Amino acid sequence: MASPRSLAISFFVLLIIPAISARISVIKLPGSDGSNSAAKTYCESWRLAAETNNAGTWNVIPSMCVDSVADYLNGDQYGSDYGVIADYAIAFAKSVQISGDGKDVWIFDIDETLLTNIDYYKAHGYGSEPFDSNSFNEWVVQSTAPAFDASLRLYIALKKLGFTIVLLTGRDEDQRSVTETNLRDAGYSDWERLLLRGPEDQGKSATNYKSEQRSKLIVAGFRIHGNTGDQWSDLLGFAVADRSFKVPNPMYYIP
Amino acid sequence: MASPRSLAISFFVLLIIPAISARISVIKLPGSDGSNSAAKTYCESWRLAAETNNAGTWNVIPSMCVDSVADYLNGDQYGSDYGVIADYAIAFAKSVQISGDGKDVWIFDIDETLLTNIDYYKAHGYGSEPFDSNSFNEWVVQSTAPAFDASLRLYIALKKLGFTIVLLTGRDEDQRSVTETNLRDAGYSDWERLLLRGPEDQGKSATNYKSEQRSKLIVAGFRIHGNTGDQWSDLLGFAVADRSFKVPNPMYYIP
User: Fold this and answer.
1) Is residue A150 part of a domain?
2) Could A51 and B51 be called an inter-chain contact, meaning their C-beta atoms sit closer than 8 Å?
3) Sheet strands side by side (includes B223-229)
4) Does A11 map to a domain?
5) What is the count of structural domains for chain A?
6) Domain that includes residue A52, residue range
7) B92–chain A Cβ distance below 8 A for any pair
8) CB contact A83 to B (< 8 Å)
9) Cβ contacts (< 8 Å) between A79 and chain B: which residues?
10) CATH number for the domain that contains residue A54
11) For residues B128 and B122, is the Cβ–Cβ distance under 8 A?
């Protein structure tokens, strides 16, 4: 019969060493592997095309770009991109003359703008799987999405400058309560309005729905100075803000 | 008196070794030097902010980003970015129903869109020096700016699909002849109109000037399906195209 020690050694040889070898075999050396380097370059171009709206409507991220998108989201660049955008937004906000009548508005989208659903998308292929509203709604009701550090910083700075905050989301009206809980737990507070899709908004494109909501704000006397969203459909259409700030989202596209 | 050999050795010790040491001392190892890595991350974020128009108006590139911008422009990524955008533009163009009446238009800007002035900007700090119209105009009259490969490919594909090409540039009317020569030498031909700034357009912002020109095309019965430019002022304003394609330019911003 084998001694405990020889069993332990066998365990090491049988499991640990192959595991280490397997890890070594999948290490990618950028630049040393031509095809990997070409994929990396392509995927950077794809991400820029998506961010600048050159890609137009897309359903899932290119399958060859899953690793590249995951690296981006899990590395420092993603947070840095939000940070630099927040800096530009704050610089613009400081240039706005605040009237003091409470009508100077900054609009924020919620998902991938104020709150990050990265934990959900990590478990769903980083946007390589088609969007599944059932499983996403299960995630939403958990109300555990954290804030982006830079977005919370921007939000607090805007409040301090005297802006009225309006939250305009594609989430449904029946998710109001879980959304408020999540926002508060993540550190957001004192928004003027939280606008969600009502029954009359079902079936509208995000661009139309959000443009209509902005239009109603303008009719109500609000001045929309700034708007921050991760989708172009948060920002384009009609009744657009004086300045729109597009935060990155290489995981999904909402028309 | 020293022998030729000892002189040669002295020369090696005095000049070559310090030169080698100097070279070694400036080698940058991404990731191993915290500040260099942080600058790289910041500059990538700045470039994305500029490309998405989040940065708003800017005069020169951040001084810390000169190396990063030069690396981008001189590496494979810059050309790849144009290539991926051209692919999306061609895919859209193929979806357009061409009427055959010659009124289906695609607009191109010229500088940094059809023609690359990289050789000029290489000699002027890649956008870190304030724009100098005198020296740039000296470059323009040389008529030696090459085509972007991807832009020429897109241009030829659009012609083949039956689009009418309109070139809309911020260059002045008195540069018409040198511009035509440069475009033809670079491989472009058979455009319908080349629109340059006339005396009445001086002092107008690029956004207004270009919007007015697009508006006149629409009044003349043209349908503007696509528009490609390196500046948001090529694309935004009024009378915008059905689809706008923003090609990259991290060197300068024109409001």
Assistant:
1) yes
2) yes
3) B193-197, B164-172, B104-108, B223-229, B243-246
4) no
5) 1
6) 34-246
7) yes
8) yes
9) none
10) 3.40.50.1000
11) no
**Residues A150-154, mean pLDDT to the nearest whole number:** 98
Residues of A in contact with B88 (CB under 8 A): 49, 54-56
How far is residue B238's CA from residue B217's CA, in Å, rounded to a whole number?
12
- The letter for the amino acid at B119 is D
Q: Which of B65, B84, B149, B246 is the mutation pick for testing A, counting most A CBs within 10 A? A: B84
Instruction: Copy the structure tokens of residue B4.
Output: 């030729």
pLDDT digits (tens, 9 = 90+) for B66-104: 999 999 999 999 999 999 999 999 999 999 999 999 999
A26 domain-assigned: no
B29 at interface of A, judged by CB pairs closer than 8 A:
no
Inside any domain, residue B251: no
Interface with chain B: mutation pick from A84, A151, A228, highest number of B CBs within 10 Å? A84
Q: Determine phi and psi for A72, rounding to 5 degrees.
A: -60, -50
Whole-angstrom CA distances from A250 to A65, A73, B178 are 10, 9, 42
Q: Is the CA virtual torsion A55, A59, A61, A63 positive or negative? A: negative
Asked whether the ipTM of the predicted complex exceeds the cut of 0.90, the reply is no
DSSP code, position A207: H
Q: What confidence tens digit (pLDDT) does each residue in B101-159 have?
A: 999 999 999 999 999 999 999 999 999 999 999 999 999 999 999 999 999 999 999 99
